[in-house]
């Protein structure tokens, strides 16, 4: 099953590697016999799914998560291998969607208004007065 990143971009099955192993956690006696843990490996460095600009953005943003240029997603929260496969594919799609997203617009610095400055100073004065009244007078 191909992994959908956005409506435009989809990762074909040929670029995904799946590994299965025994999972810890829920499963009862079956946990020792079924390979329900899933690892999904996607070689981000070698893919041609994204245009060059998005590819570079994704590589830069996911740099700390890459293992030799590949993204590895592990899923073992479900008892069923199929559900874990779906969870891993969904997580990979979300991760890549966030990695290729356009950066947010730059924040325009603004000054606090006169009213905000006045209220802040009044609050500071009031707080200082409260602390002064709590002091030990030495009587």
UniProtKB/TrEMBL annotation:
Residues 8-134 form the Prokaryotic-type class I peptide chain release factors domain. GO terms for molecular function: peptidyl-tRNA hydrolase activity. It comes from the Bacteria. Signal peptide: none annotated. The keyword Hydrolase applies. Residues 126-139 have a biased composition (Basic residues). It holds the Pfam family RF-1. Residues 97-139 are annotated as: Disordered. Its EC number is 3.1.1.29. Keywords: Hydrolase. Belongs to the prokaryotic/mitochondrial release factor family. This is Alternative ribosome rescue aminoacyl-tRNA hydrolase ArfB.
């Amino acid at each position: 099953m191909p992994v959908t990143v956005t409506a435009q971009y989809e990762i074909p099955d040929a670029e995904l590697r799946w590994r299965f192993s025994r999972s810890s956690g829920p499963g009862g006696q079956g946990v020792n016999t079924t390979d329900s843990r899933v690892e999904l490996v996607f070689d981000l460095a070698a893919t041609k799914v994204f245009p060059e600009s998005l590819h570079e953005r994704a590589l830069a943003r996911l740099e700390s998560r890459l293992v030799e240029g590949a993204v590895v997603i592990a899923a073992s929260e479900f008892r069923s291998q199929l559900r874990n496969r779906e969870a891993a594919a969904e997580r990979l799609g979300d991760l890549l969607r966030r990695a290729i997203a356009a950066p947010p617009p730059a924040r325009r610095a603004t000054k606090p208004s006169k009213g905000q400055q006045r209220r802040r100073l009044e609050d500071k004065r009031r707080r200082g007065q409260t602390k002064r009244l709590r002091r030990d007078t030495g009587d």
